[in-house]
Amino acid sequence: MTTELEKRLTALEKTNRRYQLTIASMLLIMGAFVISSYNKQQQVPDKITAKAFEVVGTNGKVLVNLSSYNNNGAITTYDATGNYLVDIVSNTSGYGNINIYDGKGKPTIQLYNVKGGGGAVAIKNSQGKDAVMLSLMTSGSGHLSLNSPTGGKLFWLGETTEKNADLKMYNASGNQSVRLAATNVNDGSVETYSNTGTRMTYITADVNGDGSVTTFNRSGVRNGRLPQ
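Now predict its structure.
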């Protein structure tokens, strides 16, 4: 009797051990599968190819757009309501442009390339008018202009055809009022104008190198000169 009971207990222990081994093996296999799947999910692809890519916010609005414009690459960012913030695009000539917006659809700063090569910066006021322009002349020299709130000229700084400094100032009507520059023989000169833009006085040096003043009437005709 005792011997038969011992045999049964021994067989039951063997069966339990087999079950334990089977369950342990299954758990190990499942754990390895989970770890393997997790590692695969964490892998980052080396390259993603698409014609466009968008990043959206929690409300579904597009915040960043990577696509093409004028057959060149473009990046545009938006605020949470869909208004432009920054544009990195190209113009029709294929030059790069950067546009910064006020969040209400109006550009405030533009960085772009000019025809013939070189860069330019435009700072705009709240009305979208160019308030400050930093650019290049066709010769490649720097050029700076300041404008009124309506976009009219106030101040212009560049160069003369002889590549001397040239400064022009304008009145509220957009007419030239003062000019400081140099003559074609590199003498300094000052010109003043009427409120309609007609030259009234011209101060420079004469052929002998002495100072001279020439005056004009409101029609622009010379009516006096010192020395005679």
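The first helix runs from residue 2 to 42.
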